[in-house]
Amino acid sequence: MTDAFYITAAELADRGFDNTPDELMSHRHMIYSSPATLDFNSPGAKGFGVKRAGLAIPGSVMLLVAPGCCGRNTALLNELGYNERFFYLLLDDTDIVTGRHLTKIPKACKEVCDSLDYTPTAVMICITCVDALLGTDMERVCRKCEDETGVPTVPAYMYALTREKRLPPMAGVRKSVYSLLEPQKRISSECNIMGYFSHVHDDCELYDLLHSAGIKKVRELARCETIEQYHELSRANFNLVINPEARYAAQDLEKRLGIPFIELTRMYRIDKIHNQYRLLGRHWVLCSTTASTAARRSGQWRTSTENSVRCVLRWANV
Q1: Which contacts of 180-184 are long-range, i.e. CB under 8 A and separated by 24 or more positions?
Q2: Are 216 and 263 in contact (CB under 8 A)?
Q3: What residues have CB less than 8 Å from 4, skipping those under 6 apart?
């Protein structure tokens, strides 16, 4: 096929399901799609892309340094309450060719901070593929911004070019949002769950299993409402990683703060999930009472899940 195929919604409805065109049936021919398209997160879907994820630090603001075409879709996030936290430094052709915008960034940061009636906890500098191609040293630029404003400044790399590389944008931004944590005394009965920018569901079995294993406080970045709560994340005895994209951030925390991490693999078979929880229990340095309690609760969750699956299958007549 050399010509692009298309069909209108009305035409598709008129044909009916049984007459769906072969071009729309992926099992009848080969369709190549790079992993980048599968990873793409449109702001229109209101998910967590680099820009929204970069504002996970409570009280932070973001300066988007980009051509107008890269920043226009940010307006879609205003409906989620981010309109007071986004600021723009738009680049023209001369900026892109010469890199002169780099001298403007510290001044723009100072202007942003002076325009607010409060002092932000951090300024996130979000940059695009333009600076990737220019080879911009954003760590150095952020240090200049921090000297200018007195506010911690952190880069957030929105490099679409690195989506399929060793460190894709969503892994890099996770490192950025945890980078302001500082060393403090760790508490053996506390841990962090790392992985997503929204918190785990309240009824997730992880909370129950961790509590039964003697963990009294489970923290997540998404549940931090103040900068003080954010900094309490560095008190954790260990980090529990539930998304591979958070591995790089966990490794950085282990290196900087000495907080070890345990990574759970995403699985769907109940017996595999149960076995992973069992193996997790071996890494906990716990008294025999709490360890046995955790093992018993894991078994109870497995039985409950199996019963729920059976009910669904019976309802679906599978």
Answers
A1: 180/57, 180/122, 180/152, 180/154, 180/230, 180/231, 181/230, 181/231, 181/233, 181/234, 181/253, 181/256, 181/257, 182/231, 182/234, 182/257, 183/234, 183/256, 183/257, 183/258, 184/231, 184/234, 184/235
A2: no
A3: none
Residue 30 in domain? no
- Residues 249 and 194 sit within 8 Å (Cβ to Cβ): yes
- Rg (the chain; Cα; Å): 24
| Residue 75 within any structural domain of the chain | yes
| Residues contacting residue 237 through CB under 8 Å, at least 6 positions apart | 186, 187, 188, 189, 190, 191, 259
Return d(Cα 45, Cα 237) in angstroms, integer. Answer: 36
The domain in which residue 291 lies consists of 190-309
Cα–Cα distance for residue pair 18/144, rounded to 1 Å: 63
**How far is the C-alpha of 289 from the C-alpha of 27, rounded, in Å?**
52
Predicted confidence band of residue 147 (pLDDT cuts 50, 70, 90): very high
Q: What is the pLDDT of residues 155-170, one digit of tens each?
A: 998 877 666 667 788 8
| pLDDT at residue 227 in the model | 95
CATH at residue 295: 3.40.50.1980
Please count the structural domains in the chain. 2
Same domain (yes/no): 212, 144: no
Instruction: Confirm whether 33 is domain-assigned.
Output: no
Q: How far apart are CA 293 and CA 302, in angstroms?
A: 14
